[in-house]
Specification:
The chain is an all-beta fold and 114 residues long. 0% of the residues lie in helices and 54% in strands. The chain has strands at 5-9, 14-18, 21-26, 30-34, 40-43, 53-62, 66-75, 78-86, 101-103, 109-113. Strand 7 and strand 8 (78-86) form a beta hairpin. This is DUF427 domain-containing protein.
Length: 114
């Protein structure tokens, strides 16, 4: 792991919602701490309703984690473009978050501990 990133099991049960829909709940979330940034909760893909997510062409690069693919959230009431990211093939030091999903903190998406 890089020296300024810590990954640990997130305590408790976590939920993500968008547009009135529950996208997922999990007790197996990971919390990633990076420097002085706010913690990021990563959800196991198996605990997310992937039918609400459409993969986009957007790819971003982090020198400490690798390339992140992005997804838009699509539901009956809205589309939130590129609101989700995932490190499908992270650098070896970040293998714990491989395939997990994280959600940008935007108004239409709520990540919360239950």
């Amino acid at each position: 792991m890089t020296d300024h990133i810590t990954i640990q099991k997130a305590t408790g049960k976590w939920c993500v919602r968008s547009g009135g829909a529950i996208l997922g709940e999990t007790s197996n979330a990971l919390e990633l701490l990076e420097g002085d940034r706010d913690p990021v909760i990563y959800f196991p893909r198996s605990d997310i309703a992937m039918a609400f997510l459409d993969r986009t062409d957007k790819v971003t690069h982090c020198p400490h984690k690798g390339d992140a693919t992005h997804f838009s959230i699509v539901n009956k009431s809205s589309v939130t473009e590129n609101a989700v990211w995932s490190y499908e093939d992270p650098i070896p030091a970040m293998v714990e978050i491989k395939g997990f999903l994280a959600f940008y903190p935007v108004d239409s998406v709520k990540v919360e501990r239950l």
